[in-house]
Amino acid sequence: MIIRHTRKREDRKEDTHLTLNKKYLVIGVYYVPNQGSKFIIQCDTDNEVGWFLSKYFDLVDAHVPPDFSYTFYESGRSELEPTVFDGDFWDRFHEGDPDAEKIFDQEVKRIKAFHHFES
After folding, report:
1. pLDDT class for 55, splitting at 50, 70, 90?
2. In terms of C-beta distances under 8 Å and separation of at least 24 residues, what long-range contacts does 61-64 make, across chains too?
3. How much is the pLDDT for 107?
């Protein structure tokens, strides 16, 4: 999926993570009851990964790569993300595991190619 940042986040005086009207490649989508949907995207600052509420974006391209998986949990939470991100991937990624970082970079390249996305 591709989204465009169209509404300022009201909790920020100045937003250094996102650029208004810029398109972003969606790396995953999470839904959490009572919080709403969040997009996983790379921020403008150092390409850090961030989870951002969907209400700040408009959908530009709804196509999802074929190897994404959808998981629904009894709690009502759900995830849509690359299958290789299953399990403890995000824990390893945030701990700086080089293998997880390599997997992440490969997946971002693959998702960009799927969408013909230029950043």
Report:
1. very high
2. 61/1, 61/2, 61/115, 62/1, 63/1, 63/114, 63/115, 64/1
3. 95
